Amino acid sequence: MDWSKALWQDREKNELEPHTRCKPSGVARQFLTPYGVEFVEIPDLQQIYIFDIGGPHTYRIVYMDGRAHPKDFTPTYYGHSTGKWEGDTLVVDSVGFNESFWLDRRGLPHTEKLHTIEKFTRTDSNTINYEATIDDPGAYTNQWTGKFTLGLSAGQELFEYVCQQDNKATELMVGDFKSVDRSSDFIP
């Protein structure tokens, strides 16, 4: 759609990403943060928590008890997520997102109509294949799927991280408004 393409182009040019202002990052962007994530399954609660190690130190809950999505839901950064196991693959169905985060580091937009299906498949002890299907008729003419691999950082644990809310030092976040290489595994 024209408006979403124009917004994406503006974000590519200006690179003022919400994550750099301590805002949670939903969907695929959650897994592209400098310090990664940690999955914690609590079988007694039938829930999986996905903790952001860096940034705003937030977490997402995936309900594994077979519940449906609520009919009335106030949109949030992580939306409402339900999950189930299909063999060795965790399948997470999410709705109820707000429009305050980017889908990825490059600035892909979305609307509150966003519905995602994410698949996490552990291929060995150090690797998870991640696949996200994006269905957002408010922003895109068709649904689409993206994939990447998550790797284990052995020995890394959650640590104290102070995210500077409302940081005004834009030159420290995106340089002197020049292009920023976002391919590095480490972003100061």
Q: What is the chain-wise order of helices and strands? A: HEEEEEEEEH
Structural class: mainly beta
Strand order of the largest sheet: 1-2-3-4-5-6-7-8
User: How does the overall form come out from the CA principal axes?
Assistant: globular
Determine Rg (CA atoms, Å): 17 Å
C-alpha end-to-end distance: 34 Å
Total number of strands? 8
**For the residues shown, what is the average pLDDT?**
84
Helix content: under 10%
Strand content: 25-35%
Number of H- or I-type helical stretches: 2
Query: How many domains make up the coordinates?
Result: 1
Q: Report the uncertain regions.
A: 184-188
Summarize the main sheet: 8 strands, mixed
Short description:
With 188 residues, this protein is mostly beta strands. The chain has helices spanning 2-14, 170-174, and strands spanning 37-42, 47-52, 59-63, 80-86, 89-95, 115-124, 127-135, 144-151.
Can you walk through the features of this model?
10% of the residues lie in helices and 31% in strands. By secondary structure, it is mainly beta. The chain has one domain (2-152). The protein has an eight-stranded mixed sheet, with no helix packed on it. The longest helix has 13 residues, at 2-14. It starts with a helix and ends in a 14-residue tail after the last helix.
Structural descriptors:
188 residues; mainly beta; 2 helices; 8 strands; 31% strand; globular; disordered C terminus
